[in-house]
Amino acid sequence: MPIIQFPIRATNVVTGLAIIVLPVIALAVKLITPGWMLFILFYAGILLGALYVLLVVMASSGFFGRRAAFSFVPAKRGRFAGLTHGVAVVLFMFFLIDGGDSDDWSSPFITVFGFDRDAFSDLTSALCGVSLVIAVGAYLWFFVEWVIAVRVKRRLV
Questions:
Q1: Which of the chain's termini has less CB crowding within 10 Å, N or C?
Q2: Which of left, alpha, beta for 5 (phi over 0: left; psi -120 to 50: alpha)?
């Protein structure tokens, strides 16, 4: 049986790189206003690290190479799910309110734009929650799309 190989698409490579890099950018965004939530993120590092490793595996096996899994299926949904997850994680960190033991709580959104903390805290919290729900949902959607693509690839190769 011949091995099916496809040309390497630039859109797949860019999408894969974006999916891998966006969570790292999200962590950098969070460093604008460090506090206890950042400590909790590091404390939950084993779980988050395992989820990130799985994300890297899905992106690299799905988008890189001539036998990438998303080359065997229409990749629009997979690309959209992966990029939605990455953007939602960045937005989650951008809207996450954090602070130390003092009265210096804020979010990168409030800090960057110089908004009043009390006036924008409810909006920021709501946007943070919506972004978190979208990030988790998109991660699960990307996982399902990746599993489908890998199964199709294994049937054809």
A1: N
A2: beta
Biggest CA-to-CA distance, the chain? 67
Q: How many Cβ atoms are within 10 Å of 28's Cβ, its own excluded?
A: 12
Phi, psi of 106 (to 5 degrees): -170, 180
Nearest to 153 by CA among 71, 78, 57: 71
Question: What pLDDT was estimated at residue 111?
Answer: 84
Packed helices 10-30 and 36-43: angle between N→C axes, nearest 10 degrees: 130
Q: Record the pTM.
A: 0.86
Q: At what angle do helices 76-95 and 45-63 cross, to 10 degrees?
A: 150
Two structure tokens written together for 99: 């602070």
Q: Which residues are 98's β-sheet partners?
A: 106
CA nearest to 141, candidates 100, 82, 88, 99: 82
**What are the DSSP E strand ranges found in 30-149?**
none
CA distances from 11 to 1, 7, 55, 130 (A): 29, 11, 18, 28
pLDDT digit string (tens) for 37-92?
Answer: 877 877 888 888 899 999 999 999 888 887 888 888 887 888 899 999 999 999 99
